[in-house]
Amino acid sequence: MKAFFIPVFAGLILLACSKKETNSYDATSLFGSWKEYEAYADPGDGSGTFHKVDGILLTINPDSSYTCTPEHYVWGKSGRITLINDSTISINSSQGATGWPASFRKYNNMLELGYICIEGCGSRFKKVSNDYRAGN
After folding, report:
1. Distance of CA 109 to the CA centre of its chain
2. Cβ–Cβ contacts within 10 Å for residue 117, how many?
């Protein structure tokens, strides 16, 4: 079990310590529709990599609610995202799972999320629309 947590937390620490493109974020920088183009999975031994996917459409609304089309295997179909600080959000699924912490890094029209699942996981998104209604 310890072997599972060490790579996950090491990854989160590395993401948190990485050089930031901008000095501050606010929740409005996350609004819009984001298309997942790469996913990260680690079998628990640190050998994980990002690979290309035709992934979900994540839409983040001004009221901090989100929708995933199709349903995301960790976050479900919808819920609420809470901005914790300039590198961490909390994902609260309306399907029952609450408080999933996720590190994030936003640069240009890209968004990278690192989150905990059975093994270390992550997603890279490209912004497809500033109109948050595009995914609804």
Report:
1. 14
2. 13
42-56 tens-digit pLDDT: 877 888 899 999 999
Angle at 107 between CA 86 and CA 76, to 5 degrees: 70
Give per-residue pLDDT as tens, 106-128: 888 999 999 877 777 899 999 99
Q: Which residues contact 59 (CB under 8 A, 6 or more apart)?
A: 32, 33, 34, 66, 67, 68, 69, 132, 133, 134, 135, 136
Range list of β-strands (E), 1-136: 32-41, 49-52, 57-60, 65-72, 76-85, 88-93, 100-107, 110-116, 120-129
100 φ, ψ to 5°? -65, 115
* Ranges 36-50, 67-81, 92-106, 113-127: which has the least confidence: 92-106
Distance of CA 38 to the CA centre of its chain: 11
